[in-house]
């Protein structure tokens, strides 16, 4: 795996041509595997002999993974994404009420208000500059980051720093000292949030989690509380940030598909689902571990191997989406069958909120700026660093009314 990342689709196509499961070399020469095919990934994500707890990660358990390994947080953070069975159900139950479809619908007015405010800012940034503005910086990032911070009761002054640290934590191309420093600072910031909400509780999720810990310490330990917040901050904005960015980029370079929406022959919800399939906001997500030797699509995955979930590859798997799987098509019948938000017991808890945010964002963006287009050729857009997230690092646009 290239730690610097880059567009994954050409490499994915080459790997898929050889099979649904591939051997990979992770940073630090750590042996791993990736599941790329749609059907194989769907089976793997829900397989009873596949775990998330790093106690099953053989190389880590044997002391062969050093501190500062850029992917170590994914394995060792305490929270829903690294828990199995009863522990996973316990942690998920504590936060699930904040992320139901009903709760997401209740947030619609707030999401709409924030979206309009950010569109004002996007237009102003373009006017203040040369007629262009970075949509990722001025719109796609602050929308989900602002919403998740409101849900968690995080002071707005922490938002930019939390975004930076989140990027560092999921990066695969930074050194050990930088990785350890980013993890420590992120934990320190979240500890301040917990202390603030403990002293001054509010109607936010952090206060509710603190109360749950104090009522029954066995339900949520201190590390689990911090780990849960860390995971929600990262997953609660990075995925939606990439989703909005990728959708805007797709529509600007596929004007015929944008026309389908404007002619009511496709919906903004169709845009969201096809973007999730065609250009998944997460490319390779770490980690799951077979608890026994596992044969998947004819390939052996040895017990204890760290396995990447290849969402960007599965989204363009021709076996699942047809011979034109690499084409952005809002009328595609199989789009909603994508796995980009997961499958099985670890299906993305924030899926309803991510869909709501992205749908509102796209509709309002192209309504306010109907001639919006890229300010530079797509091939010149800098790619997001690392192979976990899948997007571009900047999205300069001309927000033309």
From TrEMBL:
- From what superkingdom does this record's organism come? Bacteria
The residue stretches assigned to a coiled coil in this entry are none
InterPro entries xrefs: Cyt_P450, Cyt_P450_B, Cyt_P450_sf
Spell out the Pfam families in the cross-references.
p450
What does UniProt give as the signal peptide span? none
Its family?
Belongs to the cytochrome P450 family.
- Name it: Cytochrome P450
Source organism of the structure: Streptomyces formicae
């Amino acid at each position: 795996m290239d730690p610097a990342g880059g567009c994954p689709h050409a490499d994915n196509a080459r790997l898929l041509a050889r099979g649904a499961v591939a051997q990979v070399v992770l940073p630090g020469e750590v042996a791993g595997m990736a599941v790329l095919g749609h059907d194989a990934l769907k089976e793997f994500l829900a397989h009873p002999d596949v775990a998330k707890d790093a106690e099953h990660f053989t190389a880590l358990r044997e002391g062969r993974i050093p501190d500062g390994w850029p992917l170590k947080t994914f394995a060792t953070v305490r929270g829903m994404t690294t828990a199995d069975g009863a522990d996973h159900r316990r942690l998920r139950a504590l936060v699930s009420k904040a992320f139901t479809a009903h709760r997401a619908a209740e947030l619609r007015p707030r999401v709409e208000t924030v979206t309009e405010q950010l569109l004002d800012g996007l237009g102003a940034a373009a006017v203040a500059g040369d007629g262009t503005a970075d949509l990722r910086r001025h719109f796609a990032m602050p929308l989900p980051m602002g919403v998740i911070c409101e849900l968690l009761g995080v002071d707005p002054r922490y938002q930019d720093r939390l975004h930076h640290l989140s990027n560092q934590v999921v990066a695969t191309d930074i050194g050990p000292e930088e990785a350890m420093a980013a993890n420590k600072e992120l934990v320190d910031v979240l500890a301040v949030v917990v202390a603030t909400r403990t002293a001054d509780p509010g109607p936010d999720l952090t206060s509710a989690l603190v109360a749950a810990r104090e009522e029954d310490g066995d339900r949520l330990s201190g590390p689990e509380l911090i780990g849960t917040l860390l995971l929600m901050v990262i997953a609660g904005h990075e995925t939606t940030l990439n989703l909005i960015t990728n959708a805007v980029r797709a529509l600007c370079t596929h004007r015929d598909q944008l026309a389908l929406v404007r002619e009511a022959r496709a919906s903004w919800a169709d845009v969201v689902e096809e973007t999730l399939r065609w250009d998944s906001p997460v490319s390779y997500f770490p980690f799951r571990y077979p608890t026994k030797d596992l044969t998947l699509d004819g390939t052996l995955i040895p017990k204890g191997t760290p396995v990447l979930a290849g969402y960007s590859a599965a989204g363009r798997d021709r076996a699942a989406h047809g011979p034109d799987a690499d084409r952005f098509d809002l009328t595609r019948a199989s789009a909603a069958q994508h796995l980009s938000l997961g499958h099985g017991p670890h299906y993305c808890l924030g899926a309803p909120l991510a869909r709501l945010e992205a749908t509102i964002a796209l509709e309002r963006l192209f309504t306010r700026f109907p001639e919006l287009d890229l300010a530079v050729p797509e091939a010149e857009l800098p790619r997001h660093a690392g192979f976990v997230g899948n997007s571009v690092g900047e999205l300069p646009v001309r927000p033309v009314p």
